[in-house]
Amino acid sequence: MPKTSAATPPLLRRVNAGKLLGVLSTAGVMTGTGLIEATGLTRATVHAVCNDLIEMGWVIELDPGREDDAAVGRPSRRFEFNSQAGYVLGIDVGAGKTTVLLADLRGETVAKSGRSFQQVRSPAESTELVHEAVVEALSSAGVTDAEVLAAGIGVAAPVDRLGNILLDDEFWRRSDTGLTARLTELHGWPVLLENDANLAALGEHWRGEARDVDDLVVLLAGERFGSGLMDSGRLLHGSRGGAGEMVYLKLVEGVGDTAGIARTAREQGAKVVADRSTKTALRELAGADPVTAEQVFTAAADGDEVALGILQYIADRTARVVATLGILFNPELVVIGGAVAEAAKSLLPDIERQLTTFTATPPRVAASSLGDAIVSVGAVRHALNYVEQHALDLQLTTRVQGRRVRAEAAASSTTRLRP
Q: What is the top-level taxon of the source organism (predicted)?
């Protein structure tokens, strides 16, 4: 019978360092005793590994607690995760614009920028605009490329587990602009490509309406429907990254295509305005310009019967979309996300009422509170996951000098902005 080799001391040290970083990155200041209780490691191991992490720059040791705070003996050593040891980027490359978030290693946003794609004519132009937005975010926070540890990017195309875009469809091929290679070439940091709806699911699970929900669908519902699926807290990709793609909606009675809430509202509004026999406030709201989705929701809120009819149609259609997701994946929660999320709140009661007529296991339905930052927030989380998995292999540019720093110095940081 072959012998099983014991884990080597360097491997054990690495595993133990991962445990301690995992605890410290989500906690505040912790004592050695607290870390022992949280990890199950011995006191000697905790202090030895913390010394290593301090030397590497991942952990800060604060002034010890006062003697009258300690039960017996000398003051406890106190440790804190160094959230300014590096930064990550979360980038949403949408159809009409790009949004860039720069965040510290606790995921707190320190800078935000964006660019419109309205005048873009080629993939090279869109790549350049993303690059410009990245440079603006870094510059505004005084962060260098060397301090960025990873960037997550969301695109509206199926992306497999290795970060490759499924190229079988012309629409998806247009999403493969060479952006990841170009950004790495320009800036040097690793770029992690992912489907936008998958990142939306990561964002909701981390900072949104689904923080305590592991069986989740996030439905991006603006221009076209797309869904990110999470089962037991794990993203579902499928064999080639196509899990959650919504092209099947063309076969669903009462839906017929993948047009999302904003697009449907806009198209239905244009139809009624074009019919001069229809009396509606939308005609006055739009004037000489095309009807917008916002105008449809505004008119409905003001009691316009035609606009209310459009929203009823949208609610009926969206209920069927949510029901198919509920039947296929049986999630606890479906979150409607994207720029339409706030407006979609008015549709929720009607959607939930209809769900019970379509499925015996209707999910709860909520509107995202992350707004149009949902994908970029998820991209930050995606980048942080990479950093946590590879922390001991990453070279930090800013190291803590000396074993101890004063608590007030450690507490000072760049002004933080919420997404």
A: Bacteria
Threshold 0.85, pTM exceeds: yes
Strand ranges for 169-263 from DSSP E: 191-195, 216-220, 226-231, 234-235
Residues of the chain with CATH 3.30.420.40: 87-208+373-393, 216-369
User: 144 by DSSP, 3-state: which?
Assistant: coil
Do residues 98 and 114 lie in contact, with contact meaning Cβ atoms separated by under 8 Å? yes
Q: How far is CA 338 from CA 140, 197, 302, 370, 414, in A?
A: 26, 10, 24, 8, 28
Query: For 335-355, how does the pLDDT look when each residue is reduced to its tens digit (9 = 90+)?
Result: 999 999 999 999 999 999 999
The Cα–Cα gap between 419 and 407 comes to 27
The helix (H) or strand (E) run that includes residue 81 is strand 78-81
Domain 87-208+373-393, second-level architecture: 2-Layer Sandwich (3.30)
pLDDT number for residue 12: 85
Q: How many CA within 13 A on the CB side of residue 157?
A: 22
Whole-number Å distance between alpha carbons of 408 and 236: 43
Q: Are 308 and 287 spatial neighbours (Cβ–Cβ below 8 Å)?
A: no
Which CATH class for the 216-369 domain?
A: alpha beta
Task: Tell me which residue of 349, 363, 350, 25 sits closest to 206, measured CA to CA.
Answer: 25
Comparing CA positions, the residue from 355, 353, 354, 359 lying closest to residue 328 is 359
Residue ranges, CATH 1.10.10.10, the chain: 9-84+401-406
8 burial class (0-12, 13-18, 19+ CB within 10 angstroms)?
A: exposed
**Rg for the chain (alpha carbons), in Å?**
25
Fold entry, domain 9-84+401-406 = Arc Repressor Mutant, subunit A (1.10.10)
* pLDDT at residue 277 is higher than 70: yes
What whole-number distance in Å separates Cα of residue 131 and Cα of residue 185?
Answer: 11
